[in-house]
Specification:
By secondary structure, the protein is of the alpha+beta class. It has six helices and eight strands; from the N terminus they run βββαββββαβαααα. It is elongated, with a radius of gyration of 18 Å.
Length: 162
């Protein structure tokens, strides 16, 4: 993994009304130095012991932030305002998530679904992967993936991109 930046910072809260999300905030100049700017997928290494795959989102004052999910911090006692050491790496996986096995198999078996998948943005691909990872039953995963990709195909047809 390619190291992009290293710094000490504090965990902050973004929009506490929607839930207390722990976040790492970046100055605009730091994000501008990344290979694809704010579209760069990154891995944050917190205090040398926690790796978090994430994206970069705009903050209201011109800075940027990455959210740290509660599950990633489970077992650690990080508090808001606590100083942490952060190393930012470029994520070699531009999707930022691994492909669920059911989806991978489906894309190998169905050429139309593969063509739809190839036309999707990384964000839509991530959405499908996250939805599938929440489902435990393989048959339900296949149904979800098929429905999702068929709806995306319909959207492409409406836009004249199919």
């Amino acid at each position: 993994m390619r190291e992009l930046h290293k710094f000490d910072t504090v965990l902050e809260t973004v929009n506490p009304i929607r839930g207390n999300y722990r976040c790492v905030v970046f100055e605009k100049s730091i994000v501008d130095s990344f290979p694809q700017g704010r579209k760069t997928r990154i891995i944050l290494k917190l205090d040398g012991c926690i790796d978090v795959q994430c994206g970069i989102q705009p903050y209201e004052d011109g800075r940027y932030f990455s959210m740290i999910g509660r599950s990633k911090l489970e077992g650690y006692s990080y508090e808001m305002g606590q100083t942490i050491s952060v190393v930012v790496y470029q994520d070699p996986n531009t999707l930022g998530i691994s492909l669920p096995e059911v989806l991978s198999t489906l894309l190998k078996q169905d050429d139309v679904m593969k063509q739809v998948w190839d036309k999707l943005s990384d964000g839509r691909k991530r959405t499908l992967c996250h939805k599938l990872l929440r489902i435990n039953n393989n048959d339900n995963q296949v149904d979800m993936a098929s429905d999702f990709l068929n709806m995306e195909r319909e959207k492409l047809l409406e836009k004249g991109k199919w």
